[in-house]
Amino acid sequence: MRRLVIAVGSSVLACASAYALWPRSAPAIASHAHPKAVAVSAAPALLPEAAAAPSIASTPKANASPAKPDNDASREENDLRALEEEALRQIDVVPLLRAAGVDIDRLQARPDANDVLRHVAADELMTRSMMHGLLTSTIYPYGYPRDRALNDARDAANRMVAALSQEARIDLLQSALVDGSSAEPEPTFYEKDSGRVFAEGERGDSPSE
Question: Structure pTM?
Answer without folding.
Answer: 0.64
